[in-house]
Amino acid sequence: MSQTTEKRSRFARFGRWVAELVLVFVGVYAAFWLNSYQQHQQDAERRDRILASIEQTLREGIESSKINRVSEQEPAAAKFQRALDAGEMPPLRPFVFITDYSPSDLATMLQSGGVQLLDVQTLSGTAQRRISYPLGARPHGTLSEIK
User: Model-level pTM greater than 0.85?
Assistant: First the structure.
């Protein structure tokens, strides 16, 4: 009788050990799954904020372009057309387009995950300063000044 109880106790211990092992495995798996789910939720929220910021910037740019067209481009085009109609050749103004865009810098920042460390306001403020002062005519401030 003692041999059967000893076998039962061994099986019981082994059964408890397997049950604990399965329980730990399920718990760790659930923790990793929950962490992954939360990370995906945060990424989606951040992506939505960035897209909203881009949309707002584009709307502001479109509105600014409309105002610029009405206040500067249309009068200049009318003046140019009047001079052409009068048989004159009006002077042409040079068209200058300067950009501070560097694809290698942007690719490096995106691949390193540097963009994920900054909040949306800082990113849009940095981009706005780079557009406003493309050749570094004015030194960039600190991140706290950009916000």
Answer: no
